[in-house]
Amino acid sequence: MKTILNDFEHFAPKTVEEALDLLSRYGEEECKIVAGGQSLLILMKQRLVTPKYLIDIKGISALDYITFDEQQGLKIGALTTHRAIEKSPVIEKYYPVLAEMEQNVSSVETRNWGTIGGNISHGDPSGDPAPVFIALNGRLRIAGLNGERTVEAEDFTLGYFETVLGHDELLTEIQVPALPPHTGVKYTKFSQLQGDYATASVAVSITLEAKKKTCSDVRIALGAVAPAPMRAKKAEEILRGEKISDDLLARAGQAASEEASPTTDAEVSEEYKRELVKVLVKRVAKEAFERAKKA
Amino acid sequence: MKKELKFKVNGEDYDLWVEPKTLLVQVLRDELGLKGTKWACDSGACCACTVMVDGRAVKSCSILALQVNGKEVMTVEGLANGPELHPLQQAFIDNWAFQCGFCTSGQLMAAKALLDENPDPTIDEIKIAMDGHLCRCTGYNMISEAIQDAAKRLQAQKQQEGGK
Amino acid sequence: MANYRCPCCRKITSDTMDLARHFLGQTDRKHKDWLKTKGLSYAQLIRWQGTEFGNKGYKALAELLEKEAPRVE
Amino acid sequence: MSEYSVIGKPIKNVDGVAKVTGEAVYAFDMTLPNMLYGKLLRSPHPHAKIISIDTTEAQKLPGVKAIITGKDTPGGKWGLWRRYPELCDQTALATEKVRYIGEPVAAVAATSIDIAERALDLIQVEYEPLPAVFDPLEAIKDDAPLVHEDFENNINATRHIEWGNVDEAFKAADYIREDRFTLSSQHHAPMEVHNALASYDKGTGRLTVWASTQSPYFLQLGLADALKMREGDIRVIKPHVGGGFGGKNSTMPESVNAALLSKKTGRPVKIVYNREEEFIATEHRTAMNLAIKIGLKKDGTILAKEVKIITDGGAYTGLGATTLYLAGTFITFPYKTPNYRYDGFRTYTNTMWSSSMRGFGAVSTVYAAETQLDRAAHDLGIDPLEIRRRNAMTPGYEAPGQYKVESCGILECIDKMKERVKEKWPKLEKDEGIGFATFAYMSGGIFNWIDTPYAFSGAMVKVNIDGTVDLFTQASDIGQGSNTVAAMICAEVLGIDVEDIRLHLGDTAITLTDLGAWGSRETLMNGNAIKAAAEEVKKKLISVARMKLGENIVYDLVVKNKRIYLELRPERGFSYYDIVRDAIKENDGEPLIGIGHYTPHNKGMISPAYGMGIQAVRAKVDRETGHIELRDVIVVHDCGQTINPLGARGQVEGSTQMGLGFGLCEEILMDNGLIINPSFVDYKLIRFRDMPPIELIDVPTYDPEGPFGAKEAAEATASPGAAALANAVYHAVGAEFDTNVLRPEKVLKAIREKEKKDRAGK
């Protein structure tokens, strides 16, 4: 750990095109994008990253927006701050789970400056937003010099701090479809102390059929228990098309715990993380179910 | 290579040239001599360096100075109105809401940002807003109480001003 | 009454248990080397005294000193 | 009670305005013209021979002004146990070998931190790694590597305490239990990192150091020993300090190397640790292996206790030997223990060394003793509060040859607690529990290992012609509020306001010696010195007033509310200001000065007075995840006469936070001598949302030795938190622990074990 950052050249493009152009000019090893910088600057102090060129996109105001309509769903610009999402009336109304999630992302100070795009692009397997967007069936819009593409939120992160983003690409927008009727979504992260990084996290979205008895669709996303946020598809299969019961939820928890691939770290063992997944999936799915019944 | 940084701090305009690697906290402390803002963790995890940028509480250790180009920064030195302490400052003193005082400047700025947005916060809302702030001396409770106390004082002040 | 003198320094006391406490409290080489010549390990005494109940280390040492420590009037 | 004008009143912090406006200057904030920035190159090995150090490339870096290695130091060794030269084991820079990861081997001074940091990367050190030892039980084995060659079996210090007849008492006991604990370390984590600014004056050969320290005097002595200079040629100034908690008692490499580099360059040099250095290379709480055996009568009366402790000392001594001493004492508190035996051994290991930390000696031992007592009470079918009540010390209780407890309100504290808990928490939720733990701590230590011929505390009061007072003392306010207490005590004696007093503190050149802020000593020891100094002045004022009132004065004179008057005829008297002026004039203009000092005499081996009390923690346990939610805390304490209730509450709150952290989440994770969580991201501290509310109830007593009856007020409350928390979990779900940090995984495991045991029992 050093006190002072390494030397670099600083660029502050004003548009996505300018940023992409700059990216294409410099090699992957020597060039980094910084948005809010809440994670990157620490890595730079640790000299884990030592860019020669820093492309500072924080000032691209065109990527700071939240929009919603019934057809298009929700669109969040990549440079929207966590805090803006937490406080957005639109999100409060249509996707309260996002506001709940944001309230537990680090500190207000981090949320005031850190951006949603920066968070997701960082590819931290214990990050909070990714599992929620996966449960919400989100898509990510990526800009490159050769045009745009979109990927499913669940396909975005490949492994520890590794994403599908090419060196000359930029995440520009997060899209979430409008929720189907009778859908409930819940996210919970487990950490010993509140506001801390997740030891394990679970997001569940449950859609009930018209009579609100049977689960017509379900998405279960796990965070911090695999190299990347993941869907627990076997657990989903247990619930899909079934009447939700405590027993079924427990079975889904068990299945998710088997699907997860956590590793033992300095603080917590693999077995314990699996145990957490089992308990959390059961509890979070139950709450999602309760919400769906009221939706 | 140094780049130009034009910004406002505590109402004053500054036009400086800084190395891109310079963090906001370094400019404030080392260039402008505003040492009330502290620097304590090197990992963006304690919020001792909190200042307000365009009215929002942010960590000055986790922001490149160049990123505040054109923005307005407020530090603890800008809180009092001349010799008259801000109600938050007075409430911190009256409630013994600090001991060593090293994290206090950051706490005050976060509390100011909170009260600007939410003039009548509950204890739980205060705790959420302040949760990033490490304090090793207090048990936090007296800080929460001070912030509530300040909220009351500010409301009373407003009412009085409104009555005039 | 006979007193005991520490075989390694000038400490004099009437009680071998007391002398044993003195002895184990010394961190210098002289005392430890003497123990070694008598077939007692300092480490063993500490393990007894530091992890087991019942004063086993001091008792063993006191017994040894009872036999070996010079008497003084 | 209300006879006092200032004492016992909620007085605002005298440093308040400076601290809320950002104007308070810490050593961290200081710069001097022409100043250089220093950085230390640290060892990546836990134990290794230094073969060579090559600084050639680093010297060439523009901006580098000086580089020193061990060979360039005067070779002075230092430590706090100065009475025992072999325990003065610290050096400025390792020369022959390194003993822990993070030990400095070279120091650089450069024109910026950036250049100094880059220079470190250019220094080439060749090491020959040696076998290392990390576990104290391994360290004492005959074949263990030696951390210091002269200390066989790595034994650094030993301590034996015994009274009564332990073996006989155990024979008479109805109930005996033995428990073994492994108690972990904890980091002070002060918000201000260790840092020092040194300025050496070549012309006079004198050195001035501004440092973040708890004891300017200790630092002055440490620097003198390290640099082989005269004490009097070293001036240490303590500005505002951003927290210490026991971690800033020792003279550490940053101040010594800043001084050496300043001497070499002729320019002021400042060394500031970053947070990672603060975690890996500054002292922390002493971890220990502890075995405790207790013998009780059926009714819960303690007959005997036997305690064994082997501590993990780390590479050097620090105040770790004192920890060993205090651990053997405070594990008996606050209970009458008629028969007691203690053996403590401190080992050297290849880790950063452990030393004093808030409640040192008590925090870890209280955890063991108080969780054990709960289990014993459970086995005997006695209520946890009742068993504590039955054994509580009473005023005047004496442990033969060790300590005597004068004022003692523990019984009242327990009774108050019982009442309050019943009223406040009448019903518990499922899986919720209440845990209790008692606590006690000293009001400053009696021991003189530092080997000072000075009084333990000294103070000088100078009254100016306008009645304002300059108070000179070396007492160290490191955030605990002792500046306010100092001013209050002085103001009370002289009948003036706190605002009339200007403080001059923590500067070894202009103030009288005080041993500094550790072991809760400032209120009692420094308070006594200030009181004595102020009383000397008061005596002078009274004699002037007495003469002015004429002869035949039979009434006592009172100095209060800025007047000096007859106690029984208050209308007969004078203004304080007039008497001050007269006193100075009548004495040929000689300033009104009083000097006071305090050293405890005939007060046993430990301390002249003990603060004490009991804490309750209410917590809820999640049976499926092992997560503990801290819900509520009550503290009932006896701190004698409270000097400043505002400050005392602040201290209790902070101590409780630290104590709960020791029990819940604070853990230094180590892998072969490497601390792997050296940041506030990975070292978990309790924050706003996880901190429970605390209710503080005061049980006032009067301690004859303390100023106005005051004694220790809060350090003790660092010790019960972990034990009370573990007891709450025990009562909620029956889980037992032999270690302290109750991370969820550990709790879940203990719950499962308990369930297994229950099933097997059925």
Overview of this protein structure:
The complex is a heterotetramer of chains A (295), B (164), C (73) and D (762). Chain B is of the alpha+beta class. Chain B has two domains: 3-78, Ubiquitin-like (UB roll); 87-159, [2Fe-2S]-binding domain (DNA polymerase, domain 1), CATH 1.10.150.120. Chain B is 37% helix and 15% strand. Chain B contains five helices and five strands. Chain C has 73 residues and is mainly α. Chain C has one domain (3-72). Chain C has helices at 16-25, 29-37, 42-51, 56-68; strands spanning 3-5, 12-13, 71-72. Chain C is globular, with a radius of gyration of 12 Å. The mean pLDDT of chain C is 88. Chain D has 762 residues and is α+β, with helices and mostly antiparallel strands. Chain D has three domains: 16-23 and 456-598, Aldehyde Oxidoreductase, domain 4 (2-Layer Sandwich); 31-130 and 189-280, Aldehyde Oxidoreductase, domain 3 (Alpha-Beta Complex); 363-395 and 404-444 and 606-761, Aldehyde Oxidoreductase, domain 4, CATH 3.30.365. Chain D is 29% helix and 25% strand. Chain D starts with 15 loop residues before the first helix and ends with a helix. Classes of the chains: A alpha+beta (295), B alpha+beta (164), C mainly alpha (73), D alpha+beta (762). Chains B and D meet through helix 2, helix 3, helix 4 and helix 5 of B and helix 1 and helix 16 of D.
Number of strands of chain A: 14
Number of H- or I-type helical stretches of chain A: 12
Give the CA-based shape of chain A: globular
Q: What is the typical, i.e. mean, pLDDT of chain A?
A: 96
Strand order, largest beta sheet of chain A = 4-5-10-6-7
- Look at the structure and give the mean pLDDT of chain C: 88
Helix percent of chain C reads 55-70%
Percent of residues of chain C in beta strands? Answer: 5-15%
User: What is the number of E strands of chain C?
Assistant: 3
Separation, N- and C-terminal Cα atoms of chain C: 7 Å
What's the assembly state of these chains?
Answer: heterotetramer
Structural class call of chain C reads: mainly alpha
